[in-house]
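chain below, 427 aa
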Amino acid sequence: MKPLITLFIMLLAQPSLAQNKIYRMSIDGVINPASAEFINKSIIKANEDRAMCLVIELDTPGGLMKSMNLIVKDILSSEVPVVVYVSPGGSHCASAGVFIMMAAHISAMAPGTNIGAAHPVNLGEGKSDSLSQVMMEKVTNDAVSYIRSIAEKNKRNPDWAEEAVRKSVSITETQALEKNVIDMVAKSFDSLLVQIDSMIVETVVGKKTIVTKDAQIEKIERSWRFGLLDILTDPNIAYILMMLGMYGLFFEFYNPGSIFPGVVGGICIILAFYSFQTLPINYAGLALILFGLILFLLEIKVTSYGALSIGGVISLFLGSIMLIDSPEDMVRISWGVIIPVVLITLLFFLFVVGFGIKAQGRRVTTGMEGMIGETGIVIDGIIAGKTGKIRVHGEIWNAESDQIIETETRVKVVGIDNLTLKVVKLF
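prediction:
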């Protein structure tokens, strides 16, 4: 009976132990589908375990608006309080990060950090031209109304939030505290826990009191899967994957049956397409890249004295610059990647593929066809209309000719009929 009572008491105590757990995670980098999914899974885990709160340590230059929207929705619909903490010192919270900070149940910053510059840019639209002024104004107004509604819901400064969107203003942590943009400044994670202890926050299910004293801290680590997805959403990686995929497929087309280049190329192309769906792709830039590769291929088969290669370099270079349609450095392809890729592509098609195709056009040097053009010595005189014998490469062949050719005369093979060589006298 006593063991059953003990077990019953432990089961009753288990929820309270789970509720006294604090989850901690970090986002360091661009807000993209990988980080959005990571935060989503972490919030779900915190809610399932009925944790006391989830602390997101944030350092971001911003990112994709679509991913930011998903994160904001997850935070606002969480039953567990979500604390967003910009740290460590030197970190910043810009663009999409400002929206996430405004949505947090508790927002905090470490000394030496800043927040702001949330003006929307053309992200994820995939258009060849920049947004028109009218369209940009609509996007800005929509972002303003969105961030004001979030700020007002959490009783933060909606006027500053609007300025961050319209004027891209940025402020330090002390200014943010003075302007009621954040709730507190915390020197460290431990200091943050002390300050939020006993705070009452409003969640989707009502008011909740955060108790951090004697709480168990559990770090949520990013799995290799999220790390891989984060790497794939890097525009430089996406660009390199696309080029490698094209190299592989072109090599497979020119050498059917190679298999390995085709398989690798196919995998790279698929991964590049996954990356492109998360990036603001300019299809005019993509078309220029494809056109440049076509010009390189034509250079191999058409004698243009370098004109096609020059056109291919220009097309590939311009297409690479235009491929990502965004003024943000974080979602643009680096010059340090574009220039080497263009040069390597030029060398690849002019030398590697070029030599391979030229080799296919060389005269056959093996088999009976390889005998044409070879020279030999007559060992049995040849009379017109009758067959004689010659020695070629140490082999004795039947030979015939329209000429009378004496023994020990040098001859050249000009044709072959079954196993009889047709020869002419060398003078």
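The two ends are 119 Å apart (CA to CA). Residues 335-360 form the longest helix (26 residues).
thats it, cya
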